[in-house]
């Protein structure tokens, strides 16, 4: 394993890798769990070299408190990565200036309105922050394939558009969400929950599963029912919504043949959790 903290060192390490070698890239904000490790395993299977970045990107946090309390565990992360991929190159920029030069100006991507739905509506500036940091990582890492989780489904859609428009040689692979045995989507933010809240958090996926199996029959009433159920359990609901898997806009009606997903963003205490599942045809 190599730990690299500057863009200069990254450049010199990448220079000695032959041009014909395939580089797989996994961007993360650290506090790693099995979800991240699954991305790393796939990167290892499909490439000669694996680069994992660990960087908590302030630009994508619309809430400064959320940024400050974001869990960090670099030592533990390195051990986990080493166990999954001995030769991994870990790029953990020591400061934002390794990614963003003083004259940096935000990257423009045409997003066809995807950026205004759900997470975009609830977290102003979030996706531009994601686009900016991922653009800078892509520019520095020169990967052939980059791996992203479906856990952040809307982000994955936006990254695909960023790659199409700015990095046409780069393949983006979307990876299904890794869950615990009772369905809870693994997330770094789960580390901020109490044991009782961790168990209660499992109800989010239960609601999404109910919506998934009943939406075509019941339409918005099942969304309403599950939203009320989660409220009664003490969740504060940001949104629970069904949307088209590509445009991320609301479906025409519940009998539509469009490919749909159910999305949730909820607060448990002051921890914000998101999840999504495909709607059963
Ligand atoms: P993060 O560190 O939260 O920014 O996540 C880094 C990458 O890991 C993103 O592409 C996420 O979508 C992905 N990821 C996070 N949690 C999971 C999970 N439970 N299953 C699969 N991928 C995940």
How do the helices and strands line up, and which of them pair or pack?
Layout: E1 2-4, H1 7-15, E2 23-28, H2 34-46, E3 49-54, H3 64-69, H4 74-84, E4 89-91, H5 118-122, H6 126-141, E5 145-149, H7 153-166, E6 171-175, H8 195-200, H9 202-218, H10 220-232, E7 236-244, E8 260-268, E9 271-278
Parallel strand pairs: 1-4, 2-3, 2-5, 3-4, 5-6
Antiparallel strand pairs: 7-8, 8-9
Helix pairs in contact: 6-7, 9-10
Bound molecules: adenosine monophosphate.
Description of the structure:
With 281 residues, the protein is α/β, with parallel strands linked by helices. The protein has helices at residues 7-15, 34-46, 64-69, 74-84, 118-122, 126-141, 153-166, 195-200, 202-218, 220-232; strands at 2-4, 23-28, 49-54, 89-91, 145-149, 171-175, 236-244, 260-268, 271-278. Helices cover 39% and strands 19% of the residues. The protein has a six-stranded parallel sheet, sandwiched between helices. Strands 7-8-9 form a three-stranded antiparallel sheet. Helix 2 links the parallel strand 2 (23-28) and strand 3. Helix 6 crosses helix 7 (153-166) and helix 9 (202-218) packs antiparallel against helix 10 (220-232). It is globular, with a radius of gyration of 19 Å. Adenosine monophosphate binds at residues 28-29, 35-36, 38-39, 148-149, 151-152, 175, 177-178, 185-188. Adenosine monophosphate binds next to helix 2 and strand 5.
């Amino acid at each position: 394993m190599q730990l690299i903290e500057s863009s200069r060192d990254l450049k010199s390490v990448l220079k000695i890798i032959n041009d014909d070698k395939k580089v797989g890239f996994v961007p993360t904000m650290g506090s790693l769990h099995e979800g991240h490790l699954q991305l790393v395993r796939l990167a290892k299977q499909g490439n000669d070299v694996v680069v994992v970045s660990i960087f908590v990107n302030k630009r994508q946090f619309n809430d400064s408190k959320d940024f400050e309390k974001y869990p960090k565990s670099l030592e533990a992360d390195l051990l986990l990565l080493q166990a999954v991929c001995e030769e991994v190159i870990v790029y953990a920029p020591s400061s934002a200036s390794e990614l963003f030069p003083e004259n940096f100006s935000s990257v423009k991507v045409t997003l066809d309105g995807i950026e205004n739905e759900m997470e975009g509506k609830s977290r102003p500036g979030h996706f531009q922050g994601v686009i900016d940091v991922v653009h800078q990582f892509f520019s520095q890492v020169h990967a052939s394939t980059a791996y992203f989780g479906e856990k952040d489904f809307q982000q994955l859609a936006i990254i695909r558009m960023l790659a199409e428009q700015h990095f046409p040689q780069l393949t983006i692979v979307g990876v299904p969400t890794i869950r615990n045995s009772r369905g809870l989507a693994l997330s770094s933010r789960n580390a901020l929950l109490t044991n009782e809240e961790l168990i209660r958090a499992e109800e989010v996926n239960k609601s999404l599963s109910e919506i998934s199996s009943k939406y075509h029959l019941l339409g918005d009433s099942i969304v309403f029912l599950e939203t009320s159920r989660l409220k009664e359990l003490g969740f504060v609901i940001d949104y629970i919504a069904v949307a088209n898997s590509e445009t991320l806009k609301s479906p025409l009606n519940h009998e539509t043949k469009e490919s749909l997903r159910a999305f949730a963003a909820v607060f448990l205490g002051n921890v914000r959790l998101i999840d999504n599942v495909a709607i059963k045809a």
